[in-house]
Specification:
- The complex is a heterodimer of chains A (95) and B (485).
- Chain A has 95 residues and is mostly helical.
- In chain A, a hairpin with a 2-residue loop joins strand 1 and strand 2.
- Chain B is an alpha/beta fold.
- Chain B has an 8-stranded mixed sheet with strand order 4-6-5-10-11-9-7-8, sandwiched between helices. In chain B, strands 1-3-2 form a 3-stranded mixed sheet, sandwiched between helices.
- The chains are: A mainly alpha (95), B alpha/beta (485).
- The interface between A and B is large, with 51 and 78 residues.
Chain lengths: 95, 485
């Protein structure tokens, strides 16, 4: 599977990653190399095999639907660049 | 003191022949003196370490018998540490001070360990050389022109050079065992779910394992006993009893059968590396183990399977880094909210992380999901089944940890696929969630070589016992890089 230049910008949009235009050719080459490598999988016979999502094939534990966390938003918001009255602020944009 | 194992230091502390304050000052002085050459630490928490050491000494004086009381260790900077920067090797989290401790950190603190600092790593644990860190590459104490492996390369270099008694690490595709092999250490990745992932910054949730890098299997047993066990805060944490590993490893080896996958010794393996691994297998035979050839018919699919599943999970996990609630925020003018996200992430993530996010986005996107992601999940089951069938005949599987000893800085950075192939022997145990350990088994041109042992699910105790018996009969693990003595 080979990627085209426009595929990279579309993937960047989907992944919310700004990709500088001068980096696109190198990314096309490297991602195409990675996809070519993983294409080996296509030769594997997986007919009738169930997909495996958990290495021990166990179900995740459930817990009672009860509040277990206390409100610590002030502590957590110390890591934010900009906060006012408990709200996260973003730069002003005019759309 | 810095050549002592964790177990030896813990015993000396308990006997009162050294204080935690003395030991902690000794390691801090060594970090000051030597780490300029290695770059193994991102953050050194000297003040907190001295405070924890004083507290440990008070506890020892009161007769407290916590197993790791006063022993100085380091944490990979992927584990959240309350009040201390937790960067994950990324510009994205350069300014992030964790508000809480990871479960693993909390448990080691409770066991009395002193934290010296946070170790360097590949950005978001994505790499096999510790060269993708925002904080610069880590160097190998055995040869400063070589990488220490990755992604837990800072932990590996710090333990190998005697800049801490032991360190924590994480292993998603080999990130504990590969650096342990390249730095001459014991690297343990237990069963998936054995150690809580709470507070361990997520890379690929179905593959992420916490573990340790130590001088010996005995040290690994001590740490695992303190770290393992059910944690309600991690829904994949296993509700299984935790054995007394330190007591378990001292038992006789008994009759054990070790499976050897001959396909691991093909042309892809360096000939000198192969010779060192073969002679360690002969050593295991001398200890009474029986060797038997086993087949893992789908193991050649493991690296491609991993490079679909891991990037897919990473692209989803790393979606949380938006630069709004925490993390890197652009100072450039922005056009709209979407542009703001894209600039924050484009500036905050390094190149390898971006490649993995883009690969993951691609394999999960409409039209490719079945062909890549579901196909890889099916291949994952084939690989896991192969192990299960092998473990019906043998107790352990042994082979090389890495294809070559440590390689030079910059040697593989231009070709992502060449870098990915470093983990060809380690990825299988991550995909299948099996406990695995790398132990030193020889040297090639002055660089250490690792022997990998893999066991069935939850067989950490027999696995550590086998490694411990090997280390009682050999002294590869006791070697120390002369430039740091």
């Amino acid at each position: 599977m080979s990627l085209q230049l426009e595929d990279i910008q579309k993937l960047g949009q989907l992944a919310r990653l700004r990709i500088e235009p001068e980096k696109v050719p190198d990314l096309v080459a490297k991602l195409s190399g990675i996809l070519h490598f993983v294409d080996q999988l296509q030769a594997a016979d997986t007919e009738g095999v169930a997909p495996m999502a958990h290495p021990l094939d166990r179900n995740q534990r459930l817990r009672p639907d009860a509040v277990t966390e206390s409100d610590r938003h002030e502590l957590y918001q110390q890591n934010a660049a900009s906060v006012e009255r408990g709200l996260y602020l973003v730069p002003k944009v005019i759309e | 003191m810095h050549r002592n194992t964790l177990a030896e230091s813990a015993a000396a502390l308990a006997a009162g022949s050294v204080s935690s304050l003395e030991l902690t000052r000794h390691y801090l002085a060594r970090i000051e003196r030597f780490d300029g050459r290695l770059n193994s630490y991102i953050t050194v928490t000297a003040e907190q370490a001295l405070e924890q050491a004083r507290e440990a000494d008070r506890r020892i004086a009161r007769g407290d018998k916590a197993p790791l009381l006063g022993v100085p260790i380091a944490h990979k900077d992927i584990f959240c540490t309350a009040g201390v920067r937790t960067s994950c090797g990324s510009r994205m989290l350069d300014n992030f001070v964790s508000p809480y401790d990871a479960t693993l950190v909390e448990r080691l603190k409770k066991a009395g360990a002193v934290m010296l600092g946070k170790t360097n790593m590949d950005e978001f644990a994505m790499g096999s050389s510790s060269e993708t860190s925002f904080y610069g590459p880590v160097r190998n104490p055995w040869n400063l022109d070589c990488v220490p492996g990755g992604s837990s390369g800072g932990s590996a270099a710090a333990v190998a050079a005697g800049l801490c008694a032991a360190a924590t690490g994480t292993d998603t595709g080999g990130s504990i065992r590969q650096p342990a092999a390249l730095a001459g250490l014991t690297g343990l990745k237990p069963t998936y779910g054995r150690i809580s992932r709470y507070g361990m910054i997520a890379f690929a949730s179905s593959l992420d394992h916490g573990g340790s890098l130590t001088r010996t299997a005995e040290d690994a047993a001590l740490l695992l006993g303190a770290m393992a066990g059910l944690d309600e805060r991690d829904s994949t944490s296993l509700d299984e009893p935790v054995p007394d590993y330190a007591a378990e490893i001292a038992k006789p080896l008994g009759a054990v059968t070790i499976g050897v996958p001959e396909s691991f010794f093909d042309d892809g393996l360096d000939a000198d590396n192969a010779a060192a691994v073969r002679s360690s297998l002969a050593e295991l035979e001398k200890l009474g183990a029986k060797l038997k050839t086993v087949e893992l018919p789908n193991i050649h699919l493991s690296v491609p399977t991993y490079y679909v599943v891991a990037p897919a999970e990473a692209s989803s996990n790393l979606a949380r880094f938006d630069g709004i609630r925490f993390g890197h925020r652009t100072s450039e003018p922005v056009a709209d909210l979407n542009d703001f996200y894209m600039r924050n992430r484009g500036e905050g993530f390094g190149e390898e992380v971006q490649r993995r996010i883009l690969t993951g986005t691609y394999v999960l996107s409409s039209g490719y999901y079945d062909a890549y992601y579901i196909k890889a999940q099916k291949a994952r089951r084939l690989i896991s089944r192969d192990y299960a069938e092998a473990f019906a005949q043998v107790d352990f599987i042994a082979g090389p940890t890495t294809p070559t000893p440590a390689f030079r800085l910059g040697q593989k950075t231009a070709d992502p696929v060449a870098m990915y192939l470093n983990d060809i022997y380690t990825i299988g145990a991550d995909l299948a969630g099996l406990p695995a350990i790398s132990i030193p088994c020889g040297f090639v041109d002055g660089l250490p070589v690792g022997l990998q042992l893999v066991g069935p699910h939850l067989a950490e105790a027999p696995l550590l016992r086998l490694a411990h018996h090997f280390q009682r009969a050999t002294d590869w693990h006791a070697r120390f890089p002369a430039a740091f003595d």
